[in-house]
Amino acid sequence: SQQGEEDPQALSIQEGENATMNCSYKTSINNLQWYRQNSGRGLVHLILIRSNEREKHSGRLRVTLDTSKKSSSLLITASRAADTASYFCATDAQGSYIPTFGRGTSLIVHP
Amino acid sequence: DTAVSQTPKYLVTQMGNDKSIKCEQNLGHDTMYWYKQDSKKFLKIMFSYNNKELIINETVPNRFSPKSPDKAHLNLHINSLELGDSAVYFCASSQVNMGHGYTFGSGTRLTVV
Hints:
The complex is a heterodimer. Helix content of chain A is 0%, strand content 59%. Chain A is mostly beta strands.
């Protein structure tokens, strides 16, 4: 069974709005990562947050991690049409270094 | 310089054929992976290989086999292709324990007819 589950499955917003995506997982992890996938392309690594970190920023991206709830969120502020993509979370379960992915959140940003 | 390159980008073939997808990384990473992404975008790990240990997802049919001639290459061989093998296959690499993300190739879209 898959480790990470993204929520919502699809998100449609206007340019300039913030987009929030969530990820829940089942077992203890070493770290959690977020990836973006543009249509027809490979996955691009966005940000990695370790299990002992609670929040991390990278440009317009903000990731939080709550290990007690086994959940993470990805916030994209001031979204742009170019942010339109699928976003995946991936987790490395403790004792394993094989990342497992959720089904992704499909984000559409309307200009 | 493409960090993780896989070829071919598109592969159309008939049922029953045997095919290979090649993957090369020039990042010096110690671990490489193959993933299968289905039509619903679900990414499923198939193999993980770090030239010492091959970890196989037990749900992967034994028609699929990884071959690693050296640390920078992990090719995927598929025997007796079936319609259900149609998907996008991604190669990825990472340096385990470095706390960095995984670098993905651009994918190979396999269509079995």
